Amino acid sequence: MSDDGGLLARLHFGREDAERDVKDGLLLRGGFLPNAAYRAAVSGQKMLIIGRKGSGKSAVCMQLMADRGPGYAGKTLVTPDEVAGDEIRRFELQGLPGDSAKALIWRYLFAVHAARHLATHAKQAHGKTPTSVKALLKFLKQNGELEDGGLDRLAQTVQGLQTSLSLEAFGVKAAIDLAGTSSEGARAQRQLKVVEHGVERAFADLGCAAAHPPLLLMVDQLELVWSAEPDSNSMVIGLLLAAKHAAGRYTGMVQLLLFLRADIYDSLSFGELDKFHLEELRIAWTEEALRDLALARARASVGAGLTADRLWQELFPPAVEGEWTPAHLFRRCLPRPRDAIQFLNLCQETAHLKHGRARITEADVLEAGFQFSAWKLKDLSLEYLVAHPFLKYLFPLFQNAGYVVSRAALRSRFEAAEQSLHRLFPAYAEALTLPGIVDVLHDVGFLGVRRGNDIVFTGGNDLPVQPHESEFHVHPCFRAALGATAAIDLRRYEPVVAGDRLLRGDVFAAQTVGISQVGRDDRLLAELRRSCDSLLAQLDRAVSLTEDAKSQLRDEIRRVAEDANALPRGPAPIGVDDLLLSTAHYFTALAAQLSASGLTEGAPQVAHRLEEEARRLRRQAGGSYGSSGDSAGS
Predict the structure, then answer these.
(1) ∠ CA(321), CA(486), CA(467), 5° rounding?
(2) Contact 448, 456 (CB under 8 A)
(3) Over the stretch 451-462, which tens digit does the pLDDT of each residue have?
(4) Cβ atoms within 10 A of the Cβ of 14, count?
(5) Which of 218, 265, 266, 283 is nearest to 51 (CA)?
(6) CA angle 320, 361, 356 (to 5 degrees)
(7) How far is CA 606 from the centre of its chain?
(8) H-run or E-run covering 466
């Protein structure tokens, strides 16, 4: 593979935001993977595309905007900025509740965008300009809406709805014909109905519904103008109500598509929310889908001839820490494209730019993984800064400890920090309880909950954490940054047999040992191996103990067995009594650490067997470890 170095240099998985991917051309060269959200949007079956930050909502939006072909009569993308959002949030009308008032602004914006489309579309697509289209053009000119005037225009729109619009193009003199309207809200509704009727009539006169596909109106990046305040939620609720209204009024002529972040949508509460369930599609990514996306983006950067085998067997190492590389990578990402793209690009940069390699090595992936984990821990707190400003202050509860956490252990850690958290965030005191932080950490994807043999992280329609559930796992994405790389906090076994004890000359002292001592040593070593086998069998029977903890315990017990097996038959180069006693002490420490972990499923039985084997080894060695009382008691 003489071109490996050049291939790795060209390998790139795209930008972290869809807008730059479109500008760079990668998205259009095949770097976009059509998914259920895209297919639902194209077919018009769904109006709401919902997903977490980085889940690919904007990629779907950008791809729809970039698509060429007869799919739509026109496309318009609305992305409100902070000033525009502030205008909408502050908008009020006497006589209307906040949600309904803000819905009127969105309805007006949709009507104006449709009118602008019709002003040019009529002649270009239909070769005629009916009177109804001319009336729309006149309305746009009289109200300064012929072109998008940006922030100043929106402020005038707000003022027009609160006072009066120029409706002479539709044969209405607002000052006279609406004079009897009782309130601001009623007057604004009357004016808006006139405008919407004008748009609807123009569509009908042109016969757009039967002649061609609809106009596509999309709203994206609403999170840029959202805050966890009632008026922000009211702004989003107003958007939903307006979209529902417009979709019904302009059926077959306008398709509405809203891209909403999941945490924003899930925070809403209003009476008509149940009417939107059939309009929802939530973006969900599997490991297989992320692999497909990675290959599509890699091919877009280096060429369509790149195969999956070449990507994962040659450019990347085949395995990392004994795990197939794609499984290792995507298990350590939150299931969304942005995270996968960042991790993959970081691996490439670590190998190519930092170390000048032609291929990515296992060491490069591990080095990139630590940096990526630190990024993601910080990004998570920033992603939810508005809704959960206390989030980053919860992370120290999981630092330098096992990534498997029991409810009891978490309660103990939380109680030590509770007063400080309440002092820092008094407005969130009701949420800063043990059940409250468990719910938040699970909702944001930081903690998974054990259900049967599975560890369930948030996503899809999974249940929230239930009161009886007591075992939680820190997501692999965040473990390296927290120093929580082992399942539970266990002291590693330090081999007694090897190395420096032999170098100190103990082997020569052992040569004078008599035949009876040799036989006793062999018998004691056999007892030590039997203890290890018994413990491994107990672990196999502990089906309810979390698999990660079992795997960690197995590794340590096998290290004990390997240490014993390293001794040759015959005169032992070290004191076998010392080996048994130090092992017994280690088993006692393991039992204490396992009990302290707070795990209740299977752990007490394993801890009890560890203690039993420790006592048995002390008896076999014929002495105490630290005091005669211990020996007598065993």
Answers:
(1) 125
(2) yes
(3) 988 899 987 567
(4) 26
(5) 283
(6) 160
(7) 34
(8) none
